[in-house]
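Reading a protein record of the kind used here takes only a little practice. An example makes this concrete, so a full record is given next.
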Amino acid sequence: MLWVQNFWISAICIPYILIIREKPEFPPSMVSLEKATEANFCTNIADALKLKHYVLLILIFMLLQGGFLAFGININQLLAPPFTDVEISGLGALIILVGVITSMLTGFILNKYHKYVLMVRISAFGTAILLGVGVYAVHIENKLFLAVTLIVAAVSLIPIIPVGIDFASELTFPYEETVVTGFLLMAA
């Protein structure tokens, strides 16, 4: 099995290694000819952390992303009595699938309307309400109600990732995007 996997990985990667060049023959734009000025990492972070809205976004992102990761780690312990292991795995996969689809739709909405604050609010309040309903659903042990609640909670919870990253870039515009979004992800 490992040899088959190794063959496919090599078959996919070798053409890329042979074909892809470090840079194109002709630059795509005049801006690409200019040397990028890079500020110190600590300077970028210190300046970005002076922006109160960026700090608030980090706190919201930490809570929502941390809640999602904690739920994902403990899903078996939370849902084991009413659900079987197979049902829990299927529900987890469905939650991720619905969340990814919603994240893609959220990206399209953000590109068109640029309503970052509204999207963060929808994500935060929707997650809080639906996870509260989910706690109630665990106690009444109604499998269908709990599954639907968790799937709908994923609609508001998982899109915080693209929303948070895009919003961090917008809030801290003059600073390097990779630094501020990397710090946001690291903080979560």
Helices lie at 2-19, 41-48, 52-79, 85-113, 116-140, 143-157, 160-171, 177-187.
